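Figure 2 data, in text form.
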Amino acid sequence: MVNRAVVKLCYKNKVILAPMVRVGTLPMRLLALEYGADIVYCEELIDLKMMHCRRVVNEALGTIDYIATDDRVVFRTCEREKSHVVFQMGTSDAQRALTVAQLVENDVAGIDVNMGCPKEYSTKGGMGVALLTNPDKIEAILSTLVKGISKPVTCKIRILPSLEDTINLVKRIERTGVAAVAVHGRRKEERPQHPVHCDVIKAVSEAVSIPVIANGGSQEIIKDFASIETFRWATSASSVMVARAAMWNPSIFRKEGLLPAEKVLREYLTYAIRYDSHYSNTKYCLCQMLREKLESAQGKKLHAAQSNEEICEAFEMIDYYKEVMADLEAKRNQLNARDQRESEQPEDKEHADTIQMAVRFNKREYPPQITPKMILLEWCRRQKLPQPVYETVQRPSDRLFNSVVTVANKKYRSSYWDKTKKMVEQSTAIVCLQSLGVSEGKLYEGKSPLKNKRKRDEPEVPNGTEMTDTSSLDTNKRSSPLLTKV
């Protein structure tokens, strides 16, 4: 599910927006930039999740995607926001933080460490506000990042029980060399309904020389672009960070004034479809914008929608959806055809006699825990043949994989190159099984050819079933409650 809100930040005389929404938030960030924001933040992403991601150039969408081992998109960005997007992470370890920062720094404008999240999913891992009681660790994380990367480093904190402790902590943060510090004007136990402590932020701003970013004014102060300056003035801050007010209507960044909600909704949906946002992300953001209109006929249609197509139907944008999907499919087909041609080029004489087919493994077509590799291995055992031998290589140009399997002294391969070693070896096993005339064990083929496997029900897995990208969107595989940053 989606998490977070949109943050606006005025830093060094720039207006900075940070949509703090879980994975798939590129559409919201781009919309914010269109409305006048200068900088956008990604959602908070946990270092342990990001460490295992691979960087993929998505030519069809024109994006850079960071993909987890389960093939979910954890972070997506594009050239339009490259010099504007700040990567925000959750971390409790300096070396992990540095590993992640070095992974993404060439695709972002800066790195931010969130030390202000009070939610259990964060604090139980020693992240978020849990760091505020461990200034030594804060210093180690920030110092390591400042020394280890070339991009600016910032952090966000909440205020401590006493003003003196808060100022002392910010002064210690200042000494690490960070570019700025955001101060959320509430204590860790306080929530949006509690008043923001502008006086504490002001005292901090006057006590240090680095820019202080005031945060926490959405509920009571920030209603439009002009009131952002009101909040900045009340806190003596260099800049302002806004969350929920910006999520409710991202056009809050327009100096000319707010746009009607209907126009903002449709413009957001245009970006969401263009950049293939997961429908749960799209739905969450639209619900935040509709707010009191959720009980309207349109709101009820949105609430019932289970795909981007159904969402577009609710907003009478189905023609746009079909046009974009057709264009995207055409681009993907062109890229697949290009990759196919490249893969069919003779790479060496060793594969001259290899049996090759254009097949690709789709795990939704198989019962749980049954794969082509398992079926091929079992067939070899029944035939008293040596077990299959896989030779898998990675292409340096795009880091895709291809594999050759040898069975009974014959070689088989799929002409497709895939993004994981695991997937491409399954595809290669399918080529071998089809060449041998052996059942692949697909759901629609009936009984599995694996005799020695425990029988189990084979639930229907309809083609086209989507895996919800909940990071906690899951861009992070968490099922925590929604978080809002103010």
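Caption note: The first helix runs from residue 26 to 34.
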